[in-house]
Amino acid sequence: MKRTYDAIVVGAGPAGSSAALTMARSGLNVALLERGSFPGEKNMFGGVLHRMTALEEVFPDFWNQAPLERHVVQKNLSFITEGSCFNVSFDSEEADRPPYNGYTIFRPRFDHWLAGEAVKAGATLLTRSTVDDVIIENGKVAGVTLLRDEAQLRAPVVIAADGVLSFTAKKAGLRSAEFSPSNQGVCIKALIDMTKEVIDDRFGLVLNQGASKEIVGCTSGVRGGSFLYTNYDSLSLGMVLELASLNEKGKTPYDLLNAFMQQPQMAKLLKGGRLLEYSAHLVPKGGYDMKPELVGDGIMVAGDAAAFCIVTGLNLEGINLAAQSGVLAGKAAIEAHRQRDFSKSSLTVYRKMLEESFVLKDLKLYKRAPQMLHNDRIYSQYPELVCSMMDEIYRIDGKPKDTMTRMLLSKVKKTVGLKNLMADVYSGWRAL
Amino acid sequence: MNINLDEIFDYTSFNVDRDPHIILDENLCKVCDQRYCVNACPARCYAWSEEEQKMTFVHDGCLECGTCYVVCEKKAFTRWRYPRGGFGVSYRMT
Lengths: 432, 94
Prior knowledge:
The complex is a heterodimer. Helices cover about 35% and strands about 25% of the residues of chain A. Chain A is α/β, with parallel strands linked by helices. Chain A has three domains: about 200 residues, 3-Layer(bba) Sandwich (FAD/NAD(P)-binding domain); about 100 residues, D-Amino Acid Oxidase, Chain A, domain 2 (2-Layer Sandwich); about 60 residues, no CATH class. In chain B, about 35% of the residues are buried. Chain B is α+β, with helices and mostly antiparallel strands. Chain B is built from four helices and six strands; from the N terminus they run αββααββαββ. Chain B has a domain of about 60 residues: Alpha-Beta Plaits. The longest helix of chain B has 6 residues. Chain B starts with 7 loop residues before the first helix and ends with a strand. The chains are: A alpha/beta, B alpha+beta. The interface between A and B is large, with 58 and 37 residues.
């Protein structure tokens, strides 16, 4: 099989489908390649779908069209130890009105829908199409070959949106051959069956309101965090664990997840639930410094493939960056067709647009976050410190009390040490 | 609530390909002194037998997450690619 298109997009995830949608709407003949039997089949995430301004231009009432679970009104940050939990909660009326600030979704449904919109706009979706290699002619990317039918697909421009490991970017020479385990986290997730009524009662929600909870602690000292999100009638619960730290500690992801689910305060939230699905994927968490070359002759890289992911501990952004970068790559390809120039220097407009948008601005802003989070104290000593402080504040047991400052100082001295605390506060303040 | 990977096929669907998408060079695994893959793989696809001095990889329940690709110290893959189109893990919701 040999076919020629105006553009080829590798990967029908949020980045790829956004790129294909953008290009198809302007009349380009686009092939959108997906290795699954449908878009979304291979996709999972440990996150909330943040507001996607890039797509709101195409779908002004996005929230009425996309298959969403709940919109998130309640944000929680928890520090947990083996037996206690300190929770900070923010619940806002503002987040209960459109345009909503974030949603819980199922990726196999959401990604399927978005790719379907690209098809409606005129893109050709080729499923069951795993890319085998990149065709390079005269030093320029000229298409891809598939792992079936000896298929050769040609186009003057290829957009690599094939996810975190992006073999397309690698074969085009845009990313380094090796990844550092400290730049990658593995996200594992359990989808848990629970009725809507129980979820509403347990989390204090009504109608389609949702809650999200980011949790620090109870990872046996492994650098990483956990999350709990409410879907319409199920919960998404999981962890993101840094690979280098997992290796150092010799822990398995599923043992950590099991211990986390059995932690008493978590167990109460999950009580009566039943496991529906188990999934896992890598998260490129290295931030600004780990991104590959974004542009080459005849090729651009978008989404996770470009390591567009922001992990700060408070927010986990990925799909919004993917959609935005996909739209911008699509616009750059349209411009390249207008100019009939697909060279690296012509496609560099993509990089410029990224630099002017929140994608590279925010990645640059949080450049120091990965380094700040590469601190073992955050994952064991601080949750212990916070919870033992709260325990002492609330404990009335007939013993004379100390002032809060003295209480804190003595605890800090015994655990993290005053110097470390000050250094960590400074590094946190600089990073965020 | 507990995840038991012996029952992974009850929770997560797969269209298993006969042709594995990951092939190991077992000689490299033999001389590896870390074998991070054994613990790090979230689907427990890797098993090291001390007795036989042999690494076994079973691709049937692979979640295609990429962890082994990144943690392997020996780059012991004679093949590491995603399954042929339509094969491999098939998420329904997640």
